[in-house]
User: Fold this.
Amino acid sequence: MSTVKLAIPFYSTYGTNQTMAEIAAEAARAAGAEVRLLRIAETAPEAVVNSQDGWKAQVARAAAHPVATPADMEWANAYLFSAPTRFGGAPSQLRAFIDTLGGQWFTGALANKAVSAMTSAQNVHGGQEATILGLYTTFLHWGSVIVAPGFTDPAVFAAGGNPYGYSHTQGAAFDDAAKAAIGHQATRLVTMAAKLAA
Amino acid sequence: MSTVKLAIPFYSTYGTNQTMAEIAAEAARAAGAEVRLLRIAETAPEAVVNSQDGWKAQVARAAAHPVATPADMEWANAYLFSAPTRFGGAPSQLRAFIDTLGGQWFTGALANKAVSAMTSAQNVHGGQEATILGLYTTFLHWGSVIVAPGFTDPAVFAAGGNPYGYSHTQGAAFDDAAKAAIGHQATRLVTMAAKLAA
Amino acid sequence: MSTVKLAIPFYSTYGTNQTMAEIAAEAARAAGAEVRLLRIAETAPEAVVNSQDGWKAQVARAAAHPVATPADMEWANAYLFSAPTRFGGAPSQLRAFIDTLGGQWFTGALANKAVSAMTSAQNVHGGQEATILGLYTTFLHWGSVIVAPGFTDPAVFAAGGNPYGYSHTQGAAFDDAAKAAIGHQATRLVTMAAKLAA
Amino acid sequence: MSTVKLAIPFYSTYGTNQTMAEIAAEAARAAGAEVRLLRIAETAPEAVVNSQDGWKAQVARAAAHPVATPADMEWANAYLFSAPTRFGGAPSQLRAFIDTLGGQWFTGALANKAVSAMTSAQNVHGGQEATILGLYTTFLHWGSVIVAPGFTDPAVFAAGGNPYGYSHTQGAAFDDAAKAAIGHQATRLVTMAAKLAA
Assistant:
């Protein structure tokens, strides 16, 4: 009997963050959570998306998952966000979704939930820390309880050592070290969320 | 003979940041800069905008200024951004514009320019610092040279003392203290940009 | 029977943050926590401290509370830090204490604890947000669970609206609004810590 | 005839940041700057330092360079800081030096100078971005003009791609890629500082 209802909203342009979200979803379910894996709606013009084969293909792949809605954010008692960096910040697609949550925020429907985030970038130091920390700043406005991995498991070190959240370098393989780090972050979030929801 | 070409891209939902941008534009022109006052394109659905009278009215008011484009960002050798906070980050409308600048970034067309930012929020401490610092993080990716006001003039103290950039509390009057602080930030940016462009 | 053992380490140069810590301690005890109110050791040279009457007097006043030690950090299962801003960061005295915690961090003795922070500055926007967010970044390295007030109570708005943690403008009175905001932050931290410790 | 007077204050526990500072100093001198390479005074108790052979040896090695003073900060018209990360923030030794600069700040003696920073950590993502961005936040209080490398040279990508400032992973060799990235950051800083000082 699960008390944790975890929303995993992801935005992915070429697939990296969708894969991260799927790995996290599997680990969270194994830890007993009820999971909604949710794609952030694309807001770029269709012509722009279609002009890049990789982006177009990803839009089709992401369509397997439902679009994240404010109602999902009310339903969940824990959130795990996954999105690439854009110049050290979250993509506008994710910020656009966040901007629609003013009503939920105002009524307190986002408060007191355990939250974590993951990201990716082209370079090893391409804004991964800044992107995750910027999202946490936003979540503090919601009254979220921030549950980052820290260095609470050797898997964090093994995957590059980002204590704020798992960071993937685009193009790198999702090897066992990557999966273990993502799994640890998701499992820890579920553990903490279960305590907070008790 | 001005060497400073200043783009002032603003996003404004109810008018506060447009007023800030206009005050800054006037000060920058007085300091000798050639100025383009540019509205960030609205990306919210028209039905959402029209459902709020204040927002709808602001869209009409902002239409007096041209929409910011990547070409404006290439033209300018200095930028002054003005946008409200959204949960401690910039609005998705501004992030959407920023996300379109990948091509300019890649060719170096955004590099080595003097940049500053202003913001507003409903509360005195409602994310103003975080919003400006988050934008500066993004501008560092571009190779921008960050020119914040610091405490380089008594006008900064008199207007509340935000060293990162002018912050307006929504609904407060644009009194002489506010105008002086905005004017100082804009004038200082022009001064530094002129040196960098020399 | 309390499960929450709360350490409140404070650094105070002229008394503001000691008062904040004392108000928080009272609220936390009322919420059922066992509290250790702890002063951060002064690291400035004695001659410098003694050259300023206000600083010297505060050192004497702070002596009523024991010095924070790494053992206190192991004992507690929740932390509430209070310290003024120094150019948008925490004072070196507090950073010096934090720098001694490498051993506790390495063995995991700091992990999984609920943590929050408060600050003060001379100006309304003088780095309060940045100081608290910078401390939270550090706590994420420890595997802390960040419990900021957000906007989870009207007391936050009434006291200026800093969702990251209570911020005092130096010299302002500790009126009912200030006490309510500090009390809410402390009580919420105890509530969450009790859940995490259960 | 150099117009750039560059202070390079470094703090180094085991030698990494001293080496980085020395590489930067050489590049800055080659670019025409007058350079003061300055060690940040050790503030840890002598017994603690002496209990670790590596730390003790570094204190001896650093003694070749003069201690940074507030007078050096007045003398210089550009600063390049180098210090390791401590839980995502600068070491308390550096913060202690920064805390002594209140007088210089108050009189404006720190304002309008070009500033940049470098760091190191044990892990690839161990707080490097956060440490540099936290320092830049502090420098904004001074009225500094922030000159980070961005992605203004292929050397940044080749060395791991940190646009905020060069980041070294402790223990890695200072190979040509590292030297080129440090050299680019220092040279760019000197170039911008020369323009600002003209």
Q: What stands out?
A: The mean pLDDT of chain D is 95. The longest strand of chain D covers residues 114-121. Chain D touches chain A at residues 88, 121-130, 133, 157, 160-164, 167 (CB under 8 Å). Chain D has one domain: 5-197.
